[in-house]
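User: Fold this; tokens only.

Assistant: Input:
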Amino acid sequence: TDQLVFQIAVGKAADALVGVRIPSNEGVAGWVASTGHEVIVEDVARDSRFSDRMDGMTGFLTESIIAVPLKSGNKVIGVIELINKLDGSQFSPLEMKALATMADFSAIAIEKAMLLRQIKRMAMTDALTGVLNRRGLGKTLNREMARMKRYGGSMSFILADVDDFKSINDSRGHIAGDTVLKTVAQALLKVCRESDSVARFGGDEFLVAMPYTEPDAAETARQRLAEAIQHASQACPAGPFSVSLGIHTGLADDETGSIDLDRIIAESDKDLYKRKENRGNGFAPEEVMAAMDDEAGSQTAGFD
């Protein structure tokens, strides 16, 4: 990364420092991060590596510094920096050794936390497309369901199914098929709201969960997604493709009170395949939507 972030600060002006970002090569901390070396600066006024920008921001007066890198293998992942001894004396080599030892143990703990966070993220996401997997979406929707039971509101879902995906794999190859799936995922992510969740189910299906979305707003979102996917199809390096979109409004829970994804997908599937059947019978999209206006709880659409 090209920046350092103050994650933890203790002492005077600590609150003003937490969260502040500086260039990774700025000041003594930047020098430690870029070189991987520890350092004692007895008088910052006589050291060209020192930057007084933080002092100007906080009103603090830095006089001396001791700093050591946090390392994961040969990679620097952070810096521990102490400023001004309380008794006004200089930092010693013994204190440097103690701080370096503490940094080694801290780096191990940080690395384990980072790995655990990465494992959790991997367990919740689809490896190919980077969107949520079934487990990740289930956890997200359970939180949304708890929030909506408390505060009210409705939720809508859009199921996206890549048409004739097997024939894409058979005729163009599996690499092309993977490219199509990644293209669809990126198109969905690009136009979805920050509050929406996108997940991949099975081989060629994606589900978009839209909290606090009424049926009319869901239909508007469907049209936006359809246009985005159609444009993505035209630019796809693996060749064009088509996607059918089905909408379902409403949450469903099982006997344990958890979200019932199978039921939500089944309801969305019904709408999606009705749309496919009507398209096969020669109905135009507008005619399909008009014919389905009286359907309870859901609407569908798609494009060739």
